[in-house]
UniProtKB/TrEMBL annotation:
InterPro entries tied to this protein: Rrn7_cyclin_C, Rrn7_cyclin_N, TAF1B/Rrn7, TF_Rrn7_Zf
UniProt protein name: TATA box-binding protein-associated factor RNA polymerase I subunit B
Main location: nucleus
Family recorded in the similarity comment: Belongs to the RRN7/TAF1B family.
GO biological process: nucleolar large rRNA transcription by RNA polymerase I
Function: Component of RNA polymerase I core factor complex that acts as a GTF2B/TFIIB-like factor and plays a key role in multiple steps during transcription initiation such as pre-initiation complex (PIC) assembly and postpolymerase recruitment events in polymerase I (Pol I) transcription. Binds rDNA promoters and plays a role in Pol I recruitment as a component of the SL1/TIF-IB complex and, possibly, directly through its interaction with RRN3.
Sorted UniProt keywords: DNA-binding, Metal-binding, Nucleus, Transcription, Transcription regulation, Zinc, Zinc-finger
Subcellular location: Nucleus, Nucleolus
Boundaries of every Rrn7/TAF1B N-terminal cyclin domain copy: 80-254
Length: 445
């Protein structure tokens, strides 16, 4: 009955472009294909004198709810796409420009889908399994800040700032909307996604399989491309401080994206990211995507060792005068040259510089040159500095290594204790969740 009442509303659904409308209990139009509810409503005559009308409306609502219990038809790569979007939004909140999400990370992800033959190619591996209707107009549905739709977008891919473009398809096709509640397809009984089981077993040679750690590799590569002021160590720190979704990131999925079974093994992560592991995955992903040479790291770039050394000297309260020595070490070692610092994935030996680790290493070398750091000279020099400062209180004080060490060690120990307590709470909560799940399973045995 509600379908007959809504026949007069002939506009296309903004979500799936279908023209098939029903009425909700509040009188608003909803799409029977994707269940998108519009702001438009139908003016109805009051039915207070007809008691059966309310009963029928409630029954219709219950039926629609049962249809939605299955949720959307979605693929694993769409889940990773949603996580990448959430991570990009988190970086934007932390001060990164919107260009990172809209221009760089978006294009990296599109190139990954193309290289792995999941979209943006002539014969995507998934679109043949999903029923969809070709749009009659030329409107684009490739905005990844809406619902996951990249699997169906065949628009041409181009790099921002790189000056290179990927090869477009032979025939440009119109985008396909996602059929979010297809009645002809059902998710696997072992997973909420359509390909959860297949994905967990897939071992395709030459294809980099998407994982949660690789989402951070994508983010780190995007930050490097934009030459942002966030290093890999900063990125991992933000993850551990829960500023960037990673642990249990699947909890941010839309309610309609049902996730269970094999999906948990793909998206649930129970260990913190490791610096070396993410670093290796950055090179692995960049090589697989066949990315061009990244923008040059010049002397005025934040990632240049001269600038990073100054930043770290200030953070650990070391004398500003040490910066001139770090600059000399950088120049003598040749680690400040553009060709050395700039990441080039297509080079014979593809490798990127650990910019933060390199800057800290330069500072340690300077400390070694000044104080030897043999657990003897630094303390004897500290005694001399302490006596000088006592005798010449009006002059500029000399740097006291012992005093600096004691202050920094206390601060470091406090931070480390808080960090360990935070980790212990997470491990405890995870173990409690496991105990609860395990006890629940025992009830069915």
């Amino acid at each position: 009955m509600d379908l007959e009442e809504a026949e007069e509303f002939r506009e296309r659904c903004t979500q799936c472009a279908a023209v098939s409308w029903g009425l909700t209990d509040e009188g608003k139009y909803y799409c029977t294909s994707c269940h998108n509810v519009t702001e438009r409503s139908k003016e109805v005559i009051s039915t207070e004198a007809i008691p059966n009308t309310k009963i029928q409306a409630i029954n219709r609502g219950l039926k629609r709810k049962r249809k939605l219990e299955k949720g959307w038809d979605w693929y694993v790569c769409e889940g990773f796409q949603h996580i990448l979007y959430q991570q990009a939004e988190a970086l934007k909140t932390l001060g990164v420009g919107p260009e990172l999400k809209n221009e760089v990370l978006h294009n990296f992800w599109k190139r990954y889908l193309q290289k792995s033959k999941q979209a943006y190619c002539k014969n995507p591996v998934y679109t043949s399994r999903r029923k969809a209707t070709v749009l009659e107009d030329n409107s684009s549905h490739s905005e990844w800040d809406s619902e996951p739709e990249l699997l169906s977008d065949f628009s041409c891919f181009s790099f921002v700032e790189s000056g290179t473009e990927s090869q477009p398809d032979v025939h440009t096709r119109k985008p396909f909307p996602i059929n979010k509640a297809s009645q002809s397809e059902t998710a696997s009984v072992c997973s909420g996604s359509l390909d959860g089981v297949e994905y967990s077993l897939r071992k395709q040679k030459g294809v980099v399989k998407m994982t949660m750690p690789r989402t951070l590799a994508f983010c780190s590569l995007s930050l490097l491309w934009r030459r942002e002021t966030i290093t890999l160590s900063d990125l991992l720190r933000f993850v551990e401080e829960d500023h960037i979704p990673y642990i249990n990131a699947f909890q941010h999925f839309p309610e309609e994206m049902k996730l269970y079974g094999r999906d948990k093994g793909i998206f649930a992560i129970e260990s913190w990211p490791d610096y070396e592991d993410i670093y290796k995955k950055m090179i692995e992903v960049a090589t697989f995507l066949d990315l061009p040479r990244f923008p040059d790291i010049t002397e005025d770039c934040y990632l240049h060792p001269d600038i990073l050394c100054m930043k770290y000297l200030m953070e650990v309260n070391l004398p500003d005068e040490m910066h001139s020595f770090t600059c000399q070490v950088v120049k003598m070692a040749g680690i400040g040259e553009v060709d050395f610092l700039t990441f080039d994935p297509v080079a014979k030996m593809a490798k990127t510089v650990k910019y933060d680790v390199q800057a800290v290493a330069v500072i340690v070398i300077v400390l070694k040159l000044l104080f030897l750091l043999d657990d003897n000279l630094e303390w004897s020099l500290s005694t001399i500095a302490e006596k000088h400062n006592e005798e010449n209180k009006e002059d500029k004080p000399w740097f006291d290594f012992r005093k600096w060490y004691q202050v920094m060690k206390k601060s470091f120990d406090e931070k480390k204790q808080k960090w360990e307590e935070a980790r212990a709470k997470y491990v405890l909560s995870s173990s409690l969740r496991f105990t609860y799940l395990f006890s629940s399973l025992l009830l069915y045995i």
